Amino acid sequence: MIYLDNAATSYPKPKKVGLAMLDFLEKIGASPGRSAHRLSQEAGRLVYQTRENLAKLFNIDDPLRIVFTMNVTEALNLALQGLLVSGEQVITSSMEHNSVMRPLRELERNGIEVEVIPCSPQGKLDPEDIKKRIRKNTKLIVLNHGSNVIGSISPISEVGDLAREYGVLFLVDAAQTAGCYPLDMKRDKIDLLAFTGHKALFGPPGTGGLILGERVEVKKLIPLKRGGTGSWSEFEEQPDFLPDKYESGTLNAVGLVGLNEGVKFILQEGLEKIRKYELQLTQRLIDGLKEIPGIIIYGEDQIKNRIAVVSFNIRNRLPSEIGLKLDEEYGIMCRVGLHCTPVTHKTIGTFPGGTIRFSLSYFNKIEEIEQTVEGVKKIIEEEKQI
């Protein structure tokens, strides 16, 4: 089996991720922040350690400004629904995932102005196009950092500068880049960073979060839900401090313990090392696919402007047919179709059929990439013989 669907969920994980989760269930198992006994306190310590390691990874000073959620979708919804009110404008791009576009379209029905900046067919976004659309009522800019379809990288540092210049908040969807691409909330001037645990952070599903920069006023960010937090239990009103204001209900402590091990693995290996190796794999894959007649590859030509995601099509063939053959005949796991982002496929010209997507990981091997290229080549050769 060759697993090339890491943009959906990374596999495999570092061994310590699963071992730490099993150890937690067998030896601790309690709810963090709910009781005074030793097991609850140990659970709380481990959850806080996860915040601390994430703070190191993304360069923030206060770990308590990390709000844990089920995934990046919940984090994005918290930011978008919690910040925007009728009459305000939000700016985004034509490369966004439905986890951004669907909340925005719903908000649009409630009086929010949504401005979608067109990107090039290669996924390039010109910050000047954003600058031209900023108005007095612009409240927020939200951008996908790395495309889950073609791997293109948004110029977040430049957009962060613009946001500060015009007094606009900047939200980054880091679903595809957190853990495999250097992210620095201070350097990049990011006000809100939404991330998921189960992709390049090597954590389990059901983990993620929203990091609130210093410019985000907690009083003005409305929670998605309210309920028990283990704090202020004598009051019927929601706590107004971080992170409790946004973390109602029992946390997925076992999942966060696993996420902590994934983040520790990244910190120990080094982000630059991970990035360099994934680019090496991506270059080998693109070079191999380019040699095959009939292949159309989408996205940036410059490998430095990509993450380890490659989408392609075979002329006159449906992506679904190719994906099935790759799985059943060659044991290659990939994803086909629209990848939950129709606006991206309209931008690159592959709507409604979509593409075949290979998404790589630090755990893939060069030999697997070579076998994958050979598998695609054989599929095309078999077709010619029919």
Strand/helix succession = EHHEHEHEHEHEEEHHEEHEEHEH
The CATH class of the largest domain: Alpha Beta
Mean pLDDT: 97
Using the 3D structure, state the CATH architecture of the largest domain: 3-Layer(aba) Sandwich
Biggest sheet overview: 7 strands, mixed
Radius of gyration: 21 Å
Instruction: Based on Cα principal axes, name the global outline.
Output: globular
The number of distinct β-strands equals 13
Fraction of residues in helices? Answer: 25-40%
Instruction: Tell me the CATH topology of the largest domain.
Output: Aspartate Aminotransferase, domain 2
Tell me the name of the CATH homologous superfamily of the largest domain.
Type I PLP-dependent aspartate aminotransferase-like (Major domain)
Strand order, sheet with most strands: 2-8-7-6-5-3-4
| Helix-and-strand structural type | alpha/beta
Strand composition percent:
15-25%
Number of helices: 11
Written description of the protein model:
This protein folds into two domains: 2-9 and 270-385, Alpha-Beta Complex (Aspartate Aminotransferase, domain 1), CATH 3.90.1150.10; 15-269, Type I PLP-dependent aspartate aminotransferase-like (Major domain) (Aspartate Aminotransferase, domain 2), CATH 3.40.640. The protein contains eleven helices and 13 strands. The protein has helices spanning 15-27, 38-58, 72-83, 98-108, 127-133, 156-166, 253-269, 271-290, 319-330, 342-348, 366-385; strands spanning 2-3, 66-69, 89-93, 113-117, 138-144, 169-173, 192-196, 208-212, 295-298, 309-314, 332-333, 335-337, 355-359. Helix 3 packs parallel to helix 4 and helix 9 (319-330) packs across helix 11 (366-385).
